Amino acid sequence: MQRIVFLVLVLCACTEIVRGEEYPGINQYTLFLDGRTKEIRIIERDSLLYTGNFTRPVKLQKDTYPETLGAYNYAYTIGGKNYFVHSGAGVVLEQEGNSLRRIDKSFPHQNQFLASPFTYKEQMYLFAGYGLFTHKNITTRYDFNRGEWFNVFYLSEAAPPPGRYYKTFVLGKYLYAFSGVLPIHGGDDTERPKENALWRLDLESSQWKNLGIINLDDSHVERHRYLQSFVVGGVYYLIDDGTSVAIDIKNQKIHYYHTQALFLTPKVVYNPKDKTLNFLTISGQDRGPELYTIPLGQFLGKPYRTVDLLKEEKSSSLIALGGVGMLLLLGAGAYFLFSRRNDQKQTENTLALEKPLASPPVHTIVFDRSSGKILYKGRELIDFTPLELKVLRYLLYSYGVYQPINSLNDIVEKELQTTSINSILRKRESLIHLIKTKISILLDIKYEEVLLERRSQEDRRIKEIKLNKNYFTLLPEKEQS
Protein backbone atom coordinates (compact mmCIF):
# COMPACT_ATOMS: atom_id res chain seq x y z
CA MET A 1 0.00 0.00 0.00
CA GLN A 2 2.82 2.41 0.87
CA ARG A 3 4.46 1.65 -2.49
CA ILE A 4 1.22 2.57 -4.32
CA VAL A 5 0.94 5.87 -2.44
CA PHE A 6 4.59 6.64 -3.22
CA LEU A 7 4.09 5.95 -6.95
CA VAL A 8 1.00 8.19 -7.03
CA LEU A 9 2.94 11.04 -5.41
CA VAL A 10 5.83 10.65 -7.85
CA LEU A 11 3.41 10.63 -10.79
CA CYS A 12 1.74 13.84 -9.57
CA ALA A 13 5.10 15.54 -9.11
CA CYS A 14 6.21 14.57 -12.61
CA THR A 15 2.94 15.86 -14.03
CA GLU A 16 3.48 19.24 -12.39
CA ILE A 17 7.05 19.42 -13.72
CA VAL A 18 5.92 18.70 -17.27
CA ARG A 19 3.07 21.18 -16.97
CA GLY A 20 5.46 23.84 -15.73
CA GLU A 21 7.77 23.24 -18.69
CA GLU A 22 5.01 23.97 -21.21
CA TYR A 23 5.37 27.71 -20.60
CA PRO A 24 8.00 27.92 -17.87
CA GLY A 25 7.97 30.92 -15.60
CA ILE A 26 6.02 33.25 -17.88
CA ASN A 27 3.20 33.64 -15.35
CA GLN A 28 5.73 34.57 -12.68
CA TYR A 29 6.46 37.85 -14.46
CA THR A 30 4.27 40.97 -14.56
CA LEU A 31 4.84 43.37 -17.44
CA PHE A 32 3.55 46.95 -17.30
CA LEU A 33 4.19 50.55 -18.37
CA ASP A 34 5.29 52.73 -15.47
CA GLY A 35 2.65 55.44 -15.07
CA ARG A 36 5.19 58.06 -14.04
CA THR A 37 8.35 57.37 -16.08
CA LYS A 38 6.61 55.76 -19.10
CA GLU A 39 9.22 53.00 -19.06
CA ILE A 40 8.56 49.29 -19.45
CA ARG A 41 8.94 47.54 -16.10
CA ILE A 42 8.88 43.88 -15.08
CA ILE A 43 8.17 42.34 -11.69
CA GLU A 44 9.65 38.86 -11.20
CA ARG A 45 8.14 36.43 -8.71
CA ASP A 46 6.74 39.25 -6.55
CA SER A 47 10.27 40.07 -5.40
CA LEU A 48 12.45 41.78 -8.06
CA LEU A 49 11.63 44.87 -10.13
CA TYR A 50 13.36 45.47 -13.47
CA THR A 51 13.38 48.40 -15.87
CA GLY A 52 13.50 47.60 -19.60
CA ASN A 53 14.83 44.22 -20.72
CA PHE A 54 15.58 42.82 -17.26
CA THR A 55 18.01 45.64 -16.40
CA ARG A 56 18.56 47.61 -13.19
CA PRO A 57 17.04 45.03 -10.81
CA VAL A 58 15.93 46.27 -7.39
CA LYS A 59 14.19 44.55 -4.53
CA LEU A 60 10.43 45.07 -4.53
CA GLN A 61 9.13 46.55 -1.28
CA LYS A 62 5.71 44.97 -0.81
CA ASP A 63 2.82 44.43 1.59
CA THR A 64 1.09 41.17 2.32
CA TYR A 65 -1.73 40.37 -0.10
CA PRO A 66 -3.72 37.28 -1.15
CA GLU A 67 -2.05 34.94 -3.66
CA THR A 68 0.71 36.15 -6.01
CA LEU A 69 0.79 39.05 -8.45
CA GLY A 70 0.03 36.59 -11.24
CA ALA A 71 -3.55 36.46 -9.91
CA TYR A 72 -4.00 40.22 -10.45
CA ASN A 73 -4.81 40.46 -14.15
CA TYR A 74 -6.67 43.79 -14.20
CA ALA A 75 -4.15 46.62 -14.67
CA TYR A 76 -4.80 50.37 -14.49
CA THR A 77 -2.70 53.52 -14.72
CA ILE A 78 -4.08 56.54 -12.85
CA GLY A 79 -2.33 59.70 -11.72
CA GLY A 80 1.15 58.40 -12.47
CA LYS A 81 0.59 55.24 -10.42
CA ASN A 82 -0.05 51.66 -11.48
CA TYR A 83 -2.79 49.52 -9.98
CA PHE A 84 -3.36 45.78 -10.12
CA VAL A 85 -6.76 44.32 -9.22
CA HIS A 86 -7.43 40.70 -8.31
CA SER A 87 -8.82 38.64 -11.19
CA GLY A 88 -12.06 38.04 -9.30
CA ALA A 89 -12.25 41.72 -8.23
CA GLY A 90 -11.96 43.11 -4.73
CA VAL A 91 -8.31 43.38 -3.71
CA VAL A 92 -6.39 46.39 -5.12
CA LEU A 93 -2.60 46.78 -5.17
CA GLU A 94 -0.87 50.12 -5.81
CA GLN A 95 2.58 50.19 -7.43
CA GLU A 96 4.69 53.33 -7.23
CA GLY A 97 8.47 53.52 -7.50
CA ASN A 98 9.87 50.32 -5.98
CA SER A 99 6.91 49.60 -3.71
CA LEU A 100 3.79 47.48 -4.07
CA ARG A 101 1.17 47.91 -1.37
CA ARG A 102 -2.41 46.91 -0.78
CA ILE A 103 -4.77 49.90 -0.53
CA ASP A 104 -8.29 48.43 -0.41
CA LYS A 105 -10.47 47.53 2.56
CA SER A 106 -12.18 44.77 0.64
CA PHE A 107 -11.61 41.05 0.03
CA PRO A 108 -11.30 38.72 -3.00
CA HIS A 109 -14.85 38.94 -4.37
CA GLN A 110 -14.55 35.93 -6.71
CA ASN A 111 -17.37 37.64 -8.61
CA GLN A 112 -15.96 39.16 -11.82
CA PHE A 113 -13.50 36.77 -13.39
CA LEU A 114 -12.82 37.40 -17.09
CA ALA A 115 -14.32 40.87 -16.80
CA SER A 116 -13.32 43.93 -18.83
CA PRO A 117 -11.38 46.67 -17.00
CA PHE A 118 -11.54 50.31 -18.05
CA THR A 119 -10.75 53.77 -16.70
CA TYR A 120 -12.86 56.91 -16.76
CA LYS A 121 -12.15 60.20 -15.01
CA GLU A 122 -9.34 58.74 -12.92
CA GLN A 123 -11.59 55.94 -11.65
CA MET A 124 -11.22 52.17 -12.02
CA TYR A 125 -14.13 50.15 -13.41
CA LEU A 126 -14.92 46.52 -14.23
CA PHE A 127 -17.64 45.46 -16.66
CA ALA A 128 -19.36 42.04 -16.85
CA GLY A 129 -17.53 38.80 -16.00
CA TYR A 130 -18.29 35.49 -14.32
CA GLY A 131 -18.35 34.46 -10.69
CA LEU A 132 -20.39 32.74 -7.99
CA PHE A 133 -21.96 30.52 -10.67
CA THR A 134 -23.47 33.35 -12.71
CA HIS A 135 -22.51 35.57 -15.65
CA LYS A 136 -22.77 39.33 -15.11
CA ASN A 137 -23.52 42.45 -17.10
CA ILE A 138 -22.85 44.75 -14.15
CA THR A 139 -20.38 47.62 -13.96
CA THR A 140 -18.50 48.14 -10.70
CA ARG A 141 -16.40 51.14 -9.65
CA TYR A 142 -13.62 51.33 -7.08
CA ASP A 143 -13.98 54.11 -4.52
CA PHE A 144 -10.49 55.27 -3.52
CA ASN A 145 -11.82 57.02 -0.40
CA ARG A 146 -13.72 54.04 0.97
CA GLY A 147 -11.43 51.34 -0.36
CA GLU A 148 -14.43 49.38 -1.62
CA TRP A 149 -16.13 48.49 -4.91
CA PHE A 150 -19.64 49.71 -5.70
CA ASN A 151 -22.18 48.84 -8.35
CA VAL A 152 -22.93 51.45 -11.03
CA PHE A 153 -26.68 51.48 -11.59
CA TYR A 154 -27.87 51.63 -15.19
CA LEU A 155 -30.55 54.16 -16.07
CA SER A 156 -31.81 52.35 -19.14
CA GLU A 157 -33.84 49.20 -19.59
CA ALA A 158 -31.57 48.03 -22.42
CA ALA A 159 -28.12 46.63 -21.59
CA PRO A 160 -25.70 44.02 -23.01
CA PRO A 161 -26.53 40.44 -22.02
CA PRO A 162 -24.58 38.92 -19.11
CA GLY A 163 -21.29 37.41 -20.28
CA ARG A 164 -17.51 37.37 -20.04
CA TYR A 165 -14.57 38.21 -22.32
CA TYR A 166 -16.29 41.40 -23.52
CA LYS A 167 -14.02 43.66 -25.55
CA THR A 168 -14.36 47.22 -24.26
CA PHE A 169 -12.79 50.62 -24.82
CA VAL A 170 -13.50 54.20 -23.79
CA LEU A 171 -13.71 57.16 -26.18
CA GLY A 172 -14.78 60.46 -24.67
CA LYS A 173 -17.70 59.84 -22.33
CA TYR A 174 -18.65 56.54 -23.96
CA LEU A 175 -17.77 52.94 -23.15
CA TYR A 176 -18.06 50.60 -26.15
CA ALA A 177 -18.56 46.86 -25.61
CA PHE A 178 -18.96 43.89 -27.96
CA SER A 179 -18.23 40.20 -28.49
CA GLY A 180 -18.98 38.86 -25.05
CA VAL A 181 -19.11 35.12 -24.45
CA LEU A 182 -22.64 34.35 -23.27
CA PRO A 183 -24.08 31.46 -21.23
CA ILE A 184 -26.15 28.82 -23.03
CA HIS A 185 -29.63 28.47 -21.51
CA GLY A 186 -28.40 29.92 -18.24
CA GLY A 187 -25.80 27.18 -17.70
CA ASP A 188 -22.01 27.20 -17.46
CA ASP A 189 -21.47 26.36 -21.15
CA THR A 190 -20.93 29.43 -23.28
CA GLU A 191 -21.18 30.57 -26.87
CA ARG A 192 -20.89 33.77 -28.86
CA PRO A 193 -24.10 35.42 -30.04
CA LYS A 194 -24.97 34.98 -33.71
CA GLU A 195 -25.65 38.69 -33.93
CA ASN A 196 -22.64 40.42 -32.36
CA ALA A 197 -24.03 43.75 -31.16
CA LEU A 198 -21.93 46.83 -30.53
CA TRP A 199 -23.13 48.49 -27.33
CA ARG A 200 -22.40 52.00 -26.06
CA LEU A 201 -22.70 53.16 -22.45
CA ASP A 202 -22.94 56.88 -21.72
CA LEU A 203 -20.77 57.10 -18.62
CA GLU A 204 -22.38 60.39 -17.60
CA SER A 205 -26.03 59.36 -17.83
CA SER A 206 -25.47 55.59 -17.23
CA GLN A 207 -27.59 54.63 -20.22
CA TRP A 208 -26.86 51.85 -22.71
CA LYS A 209 -27.62 51.96 -26.42
CA ASN A 210 -27.42 49.16 -29.00
CA LEU A 211 -25.66 50.70 -32.02
CA GLY A 212 -26.17 47.71 -34.31
CA ILE A 213 -24.33 44.57 -35.41
CA ILE A 214 -20.55 45.01 -35.58
CA ASN A 215 -19.05 43.87 -38.88
CA LEU A 216 -16.38 41.44 -37.60
CA ASP A 217 -15.64 38.15 -39.36
CA ASP A 218 -17.18 35.23 -37.49
CA SER A 219 -13.91 33.30 -37.61
CA HIS A 220 -12.06 36.21 -36.06
CA VAL A 221 -14.73 36.78 -33.43
CA GLU A 222 -14.52 33.13 -32.38
CA ARG A 223 -10.79 33.46 -31.73
CA HIS A 224 -10.54 36.94 -30.33
CA ARG A 225 -11.27 36.31 -26.63
CA TYR A 226 -7.52 36.15 -25.92
CA LEU A 227 -6.44 39.13 -28.02
CA GLN A 228 -4.70 42.15 -26.52
CA SER A 229 -6.17 45.58 -27.06
CA PHE A 230 -5.50 49.30 -26.62
CA VAL A 231 -6.57 52.67 -28.02
CA VAL A 232 -4.26 54.88 -30.09
CA GLY A 233 -5.45 58.16 -31.58
CA GLY A 234 -9.10 57.30 -31.03
CA VAL A 235 -8.75 53.94 -32.82
CA TYR A 236 -9.21 50.66 -30.95
CA TYR A 237 -6.70 47.91 -31.84
CA LEU A 238 -7.15 44.17 -31.29
CA ILE A 239 -3.74 42.57 -31.60
CA ASP A 240 -3.15 38.96 -32.66
CA ASP A 241 -0.22 37.03 -34.13
CA GLY A 242 -2.10 36.26 -37.34
CA THR A 243 -4.84 38.79 -37.97
CA SER A 244 -5.29 42.10 -36.16
CA VAL A 245 -8.04 44.68 -36.50
CA ALA A 246 -8.41 48.41 -35.95
CA ILE A 247 -11.88 49.70 -35.07
CA ASP A 248 -12.35 53.33 -36.06
CA ILE A 249 -15.52 54.64 -34.42
CA LYS A 250 -15.18 58.19 -35.78
CA ASN A 251 -14.97 57.07 -39.41
CA GLN A 252 -17.22 54.02 -38.88
CA LYS A 253 -14.65 51.59 -40.35
CA ILE A 254 -12.86 48.35 -39.43
CA HIS A 255 -9.39 47.72 -40.88
CA TYR A 256 -7.90 44.21 -41.11
CA TYR A 257 -4.15 43.50 -40.98
CA HIS A 258 -1.99 40.44 -41.64
CA THR A 259 0.33 40.52 -38.64
CA GLN A 260 3.50 38.64 -37.82
CA ALA A 261 3.45 35.36 -35.92
CA LEU A 262 5.51 36.40 -32.91
CA PHE A 263 3.98 34.00 -30.39
CA LEU A 264 2.55 36.79 -28.32
CA THR A 265 2.26 35.99 -24.64
CA PRO A 266 -0.91 36.75 -22.67
CA LYS A 267 0.35 40.24 -21.78
CA VAL A 268 1.19 42.88 -24.41
CA VAL A 269 1.92 46.49 -23.46
CA TYR A 270 1.69 49.41 -25.87
CA ASN A 271 4.13 52.24 -25.12
CA PRO A 272 2.87 55.55 -26.55
CA LYS A 273 6.26 57.14 -25.85
CA ASP A 274 7.96 55.28 -28.71
CA LYS A 275 4.83 53.72 -30.31
CA THR A 276 5.97 50.15 -29.71
CA LEU A 277 4.47 46.82 -28.70
CA ASN A 278 6.25 45.12 -25.81
CA PHE A 279 5.81 41.57 -24.59
CA LEU A 280 7.73 38.72 -23.00
CA THR A 281 8.88 35.81 -25.10
CA ILE A 282 10.89 32.66 -24.47
CA SER A 283 14.50 32.49 -25.66
CA GLY A 284 15.64 29.54 -27.72
CA GLN A 285 18.38 28.17 -25.47
CA ASP A 286 17.77 28.55 -21.77
CA ARG A 287 14.07 29.28 -22.29
CA GLY A 288 14.25 32.24 -19.95
CA PRO A 289 11.90 35.13 -20.71
CA GLU A 290 13.09 38.11 -22.73
CA LEU A 291 11.49 41.45 -23.51
CA TYR A 292 10.58 41.76 -27.19
CA THR A 293 9.87 45.21 -28.66
CA ILE A 294 8.54 46.05 -32.13
CA PRO A 295 7.11 49.31 -33.55
CA LEU A 296 3.34 49.15 -33.92
CA GLY A 297 3.51 50.34 -37.53
CA GLN A 298 6.01 47.62 -38.43
CA PHE A 299 3.91 44.96 -36.74
CA LEU A 300 0.70 45.98 -38.50
CA GLY A 301 1.87 46.98 -41.96
CA LYS A 302 -0.88 48.12 -44.31
CA PRO A 303 -4.48 46.92 -44.00
CA TYR A 304 -5.47 44.26 -46.51
CA ARG A 305 -9.19 44.91 -46.10
CA THR A 306 -11.48 47.67 -44.84
CA VAL A 307 -15.19 47.26 -44.10
CA ASP A 308 -17.96 49.36 -42.61
CA LEU A 309 -18.17 49.30 -38.83
CA LEU A 310 -21.75 48.03 -38.70
CA LYS A 311 -23.67 45.57 -40.84
CA GLU A 312 -26.65 46.85 -42.77
CA GLU A 313 -29.98 46.30 -41.06
CA LYS A 314 -32.25 43.74 -42.63
CA SER A 315 -36.00 43.96 -42.85
CA SER A 316 -36.24 40.72 -40.90
CA SER A 317 -34.60 42.44 -37.97
CA LEU A 318 -37.48 44.92 -37.89
CA ILE A 319 -39.94 42.04 -37.77
CA ALA A 320 -37.93 40.45 -34.99
CA LEU A 321 -37.90 43.76 -33.15
CA GLY A 322 -41.68 43.93 -33.42
CA GLY A 323 -41.91 40.39 -32.06
CA VAL A 324 -39.66 41.30 -29.16
CA GLY A 325 -41.82 44.35 -28.52
CA MET A 326 -44.93 42.19 -28.38
CA LEU A 327 -43.20 39.78 -26.00
CA LEU A 328 -42.20 42.69 -23.78
CA LEU A 329 -45.78 43.96 -23.75
CA LEU A 330 -47.09 40.50 -22.93
CA GLY A 331 -44.43 40.08 -20.26
CA ALA A 332 -45.32 43.44 -18.72
CA GLY A 333 -48.99 42.45 -18.71
CA ALA A 334 -48.18 39.12 -17.08
CA TYR A 335 -46.10 40.89 -14.45
CA PHE A 336 -48.95 43.16 -13.42
CA LEU A 337 -51.42 40.24 -13.40
CA PHE A 338 -49.31 37.98 -11.22
CA SER A 339 -47.67 40.42 -8.78
CA ARG A 340 -47.36 39.23 -5.24
CA ARG A 341 -50.56 39.52 -3.21
CA ASN A 342 -48.88 41.36 -0.37
CA ASP A 343 -47.94 44.15 -2.81
CA GLN A 344 -51.30 44.26 -4.59
CA LYS A 345 -52.57 47.39 -2.89
CA GLN A 346 -49.38 49.36 -3.55
CA THR A 347 -49.37 48.17 -7.16
CA GLU A 348 -52.95 49.29 -7.69
CA ASN A 349 -52.19 52.72 -6.25
CA THR A 350 -49.09 53.09 -8.41
CA LEU A 351 -50.93 52.06 -11.57
CA ALA A 352 -53.70 54.51 -10.79
CA LEU A 353 -51.19 57.35 -10.46
CA GLU A 354 -49.33 56.25 -13.59
CA LYS A 355 -52.45 56.04 -15.75
CA PRO A 356 -52.66 58.82 -18.40
CA LEU A 357 -54.75 61.69 -17.14
CA ALA A 358 -58.17 62.36 -18.66
CA SER A 359 -57.27 66.07 -18.67
CA PRO A 360 -53.48 66.37 -19.16
CA PRO A 361 -51.86 69.42 -17.52
CA VAL A 362 -51.35 72.45 -19.74
CA HIS A 363 -47.75 72.79 -18.59
CA THR A 364 -45.30 70.06 -17.57
CA ILE A 365 -41.70 70.12 -16.42
CA VAL A 366 -39.56 69.76 -19.55
CA PHE A 367 -36.12 68.13 -19.58
CA ASP A 368 -33.71 68.83 -22.45
CA ARG A 369 -31.41 65.80 -22.40
CA SER A 370 -28.95 67.39 -24.83
CA SER A 371 -28.27 70.44 -22.63
CA GLY A 372 -29.29 68.97 -19.27
CA LYS A 373 -31.61 71.94 -18.63
CA ILE A 374 -34.84 71.53 -16.63
CA LEU A 375 -37.54 73.93 -17.80
CA TYR A 376 -41.01 75.04 -16.82
CA LYS A 377 -42.97 77.30 -19.15
CA GLY A 378 -39.79 77.78 -21.17
CA ARG A 379 -37.64 78.95 -18.25
CA GLU A 380 -35.14 77.11 -16.09
CA LEU A 381 -36.28 76.17 -12.59
CA ILE A 382 -35.06 78.74 -10.05
CA ASP A 383 -36.68 77.63 -6.80
CA PHE A 384 -34.53 74.50 -6.46
CA THR A 385 -31.09 74.22 -4.86
CA PRO A 386 -28.17 72.89 -6.96
CA LEU A 387 -28.31 69.58 -5.08
CA GLU A 388 -32.07 69.26 -5.59
CA LEU A 389 -31.59 69.91 -9.31
CA LYS A 390 -28.82 67.31 -9.43
CA VAL A 391 -31.10 64.66 -7.90
CA LEU A 392 -34.01 65.69 -10.14
CA ARG A 393 -31.77 65.56 -13.21
CA TYR A 394 -30.61 62.07 -12.19
CA LEU A 395 -34.23 60.90 -12.01
CA LEU A 396 -35.01 62.55 -15.35
CA TYR A 397 -32.12 60.75 -17.05
CA SER A 398 -33.71 57.51 -15.87
CA TYR A 399 -37.13 58.67 -17.07
CA GLY A 400 -39.61 55.81 -17.13
CA VAL A 401 -37.27 53.35 -15.36
CA TYR A 402 -37.52 52.46 -11.68
CA GLN A 403 -34.25 53.07 -9.81
CA PRO A 404 -33.22 51.86 -6.34
CA ILE A 405 -33.61 54.70 -3.91
CA ASN A 406 -30.13 53.83 -2.61
CA SER A 407 -28.68 54.95 -5.96
CA LEU A 408 -29.16 58.54 -4.71
CA ASN A 409 -26.68 57.94 -1.89
CA ASP A 410 -23.61 58.61 -4.04
CA ILE A 411 -24.96 62.02 -5.08
CA VAL A 412 -25.66 62.97 -1.48
CA GLU A 413 -22.32 61.65 -0.23
CA LYS A 414 -20.31 63.71 -2.72
CA GLU A 415 -22.22 66.83 -1.70
CA LEU A 416 -21.90 66.30 2.06
CA GLN A 417 -18.29 65.07 1.88
CA THR A 418 -19.07 62.43 4.49
CA THR A 419 -19.30 58.65 4.66
CA SER A 420 -21.69 58.67 7.65
CA ILE A 421 -24.60 56.53 6.47
CA ASN A 422 -27.01 58.18 8.94
CA SER A 423 -26.21 61.66 7.65
CA ILE A 424 -26.53 60.50 4.05
CA LEU A 425 -29.92 58.84 4.62
CA ARG A 426 -31.33 61.84 6.50
CA LYS A 427 -30.21 64.21 3.76
CA ARG A 428 -31.55 61.91 1.04
CA GLU A 429 -35.02 61.71 2.59
CA SER A 430 -35.04 65.48 3.11
CA LEU A 431 -34.14 66.04 -0.55
CA ILE A 432 -36.89 63.73 -1.79
CA HIS A 433 -39.42 65.46 0.45
CA LEU A 434 -38.41 68.95 -0.75
CA ILE A 435 -38.45 67.94 -4.42
CA LYS A 436 -41.90 66.39 -4.10
CA THR A 437 -43.21 69.40 -2.19
CA LYS A 438 -41.88 72.01 -4.62
CA ILE A 439 -43.06 70.14 -7.72
CA SER A 440 -46.51 69.50 -6.26
CA ILE A 441 -46.87 73.23 -5.51
CA LEU A 442 -45.46 74.26 -8.90
CA LEU A 443 -47.79 71.98 -10.88
CA ASP A 444 -50.70 72.18 -8.43
CA ILE A 445 -50.89 68.40 -7.99
CA LYS A 446 -50.98 66.05 -5.02
CA TYR A 447 -47.75 65.40 -3.11
CA GLU A 448 -47.92 61.62 -3.70
CA GLU A 449 -48.34 62.04 -7.46
CA VAL A 450 -44.81 63.34 -8.10
CA LEU A 451 -42.85 60.13 -7.47
CA LEU A 452 -44.00 56.55 -7.97
CA GLU A 453 -42.72 53.89 -5.57
CA ARG A 454 -42.56 50.11 -5.54
CA ARG A 455 -40.58 47.20 -4.10
CA SER A 456 -37.77 45.72 -6.20
CA GLN A 457 -38.77 42.57 -8.05
CA GLU A 458 -35.35 41.02 -7.27
CA ASP A 459 -35.06 42.05 -3.62
CA ARG A 460 -38.29 43.00 -1.87
CA ARG A 461 -36.34 44.88 0.79
CA ILE A 462 -35.24 47.55 -1.70
CA LYS A 463 -37.52 50.47 -2.51
CA GLU A 464 -37.47 51.80 -6.08
CA ILE A 465 -38.66 55.16 -7.37
CA LYS A 466 -39.29 56.95 -10.64
CA LEU A 467 -40.90 60.21 -11.75
CA ASN A 468 -44.55 60.19 -12.78
CA LYS A 469 -44.50 60.55 -16.58
CA ASN A 470 -47.81 62.43 -16.54
CA TYR A 471 -46.05 65.56 -15.32
CA PHE A 472 -42.71 65.47 -17.14
CA THR A 473 -41.76 65.80 -20.80
CA LEU A 474 -38.42 64.82 -22.35
CA LEU A 475 -37.00 66.52 -25.41
CA PRO A 476 -35.23 64.02 -27.74
CA GLU A 477 -31.46 63.84 -27.38
CA LYS A 478 -29.38 64.84 -30.37
CA GLU A 479 -27.47 61.91 -31.86
CA GLN A 480 -23.69 61.83 -31.35
CA SER A 481 -21.32 59.59 -33.24
Under CATH, the topology of the largest domain can be stated as: Neuraminidase
Q: How many domains comprise the coordinates? A: 3
CATH class of the largest domain: Mainly Beta
The tally of helices reads: 8
Keywords: Membrane, Transmembrane, Transmembrane helix
InterPro entries: Kelch-typ_b-propeller
Transmembrane segments: 318-338
Written description of the protein model:
The protein contains eight helices and 34 strands. With 481 residues, it is α+β, with helices and mostly antiparallel strands. The chain has three domains: 21-308, 6 Propeller (Neuraminidase), CATH 2.120.10.80; 316-355; 356-475, Winged helix-like DNA-binding domain superfamily/Winged helix DNA-binding domain (Arc Repressor Mutant, subunit A, Orthogonal Bundle), CATH 1.10.10. Strands 5-9-8-7-6 form a five-stranded mixed beta sheet, with no helix packed on it. It has a five-stranded antiparallel beta sheet with strand order 20-21-22-23-27, with no helix packed on it. A hairpin with a 6-residue loop joins β25 and β26 (289-295). α6 crosses α8 (421-443) and α7 packs across α8 (421-443). The longest helix is centred in the last third of the chain and has 23 residues, at 315-337. It is globular. The N and C termini lie far apart (71 Å). The relative contact order is 0.07. Residues 1-24, 315-321 and 335-346 have low confidence and may be disordered.
